[in-house]
Every structure is written in structure tokens, then in C-alpha cells.
Automatic annotation (TrEMBL):
<dbReference type="InterPro" id="IPR051331">
    <property type="entry name" value="Chorismate_mutase-related"/>
</dbReference>
<dbReference type="InterPro" id="IPR036263">
    <property type="entry name" value="Chorismate_II_sf"/>
</dbReference>
<protein>
    <recommendedName>
        <fullName>chorismate mutase</fullName>
        <ecNumber>5.4.99.5</ecNumber>
    </recommendedName>
</protein>
<keyword id="KW-0413">Isomerase</keyword>
<dbReference type="Pfam" id="PF01817">
    <property type="entry name" value="CM_2"/>
</dbReference>
<dbReference type="InterPro" id="IPR036979">
    <property type="entry name" value="CM_dom_sf"/>
</dbReference>
<dbReference type="InterPro" id="IPR002701">
    <property type="entry name" value="CM_II_prokaryot"/>
</dbReference>
<feature type="domain" description="Chorismate mutase">
    <location>
        <begin position="4"/>
        <end position="95"/>
    </location>
</feature>
Length: 97
């Protein structure tokens, strides 16, 4: 009997994770749309893609948000550093640098 309940829970949990993942992807798309606007400004003003002080500001904010919301700050930092690395590469490609 417990096996059936465990499997049902696992199925429900996986559905919850899938729904959260779909929302995360939608948020990523929104973030990239904003990045595209930032690229236009950077191109116009000659601002480089990589601004190390901004990277550290974003990572620190992500860690604070994670901690405030019960998520592991180290996980937030790892994810945001990967997201920022991708974003900088994307900006550099788009800016032609």
C-alpha cells in the first residue's frame, strides 16, 4: 500500500517540478528580452559586455534573495554565475566583439 502512495507522491512532485521549470523558462525568456535592450544601449554607448562589478552585485543579490526565501545561497550563486557567463557570451556575440 505504501508503494502506491509513494509513487503517487513522486508523480505529483515531478509534475510540480515540471510546472516550476516551465515558469523558470518563461522568466529566462523575459530576462533575455531585457538583455537584448541592454545590448542596444551598450552598443550605442560603447559599454563592454562584461562589467565585473555588476556581476558581483547580481550574484550578491541572488544570494540574498535565496537566503531570504529559504533556498541555498550557494546554489543561487552557482546558477547565477552560469547565467551571467552565458549572458556575457551572448552580449559579446551580439555586439560583435
Amino acid at each position: 500500500m505504501a508503494v502506491s502512495t509513494d509513487r503517487e507522491f513522486l508523480t505529483e512532485a515531478r509534475a510540480d517540478i515540471d510546472a516550476i521549470d516551465a515558469e523558470l523558462v518563461k522568466l529566462l525568456a523575459k530576462r533575455v528580452a531585457v538583455v537584448d535592450r541592454v545590448i542596444a544601449i551598450k552598443a550605442e554607448q560603447g559599454i563592454p559586455a562584461l562589467l565585473p562589478e555588476r556581476v558581483e552585485e547580481v550574484v550578491a543579490h541572488a544570494r540574498q534573495e535565496a537566503e531570504a526565501n529559504g533556498a541555498p545561497p550557494d546554489l543561487a550563486e552557482i546558477l547565477y554565475r552560469a547565467l551571467i557567463a552565458w549572458t556575457v557570451e551572448y552580449e559579446e556575440r551580439t555586439l560583435g566583439r
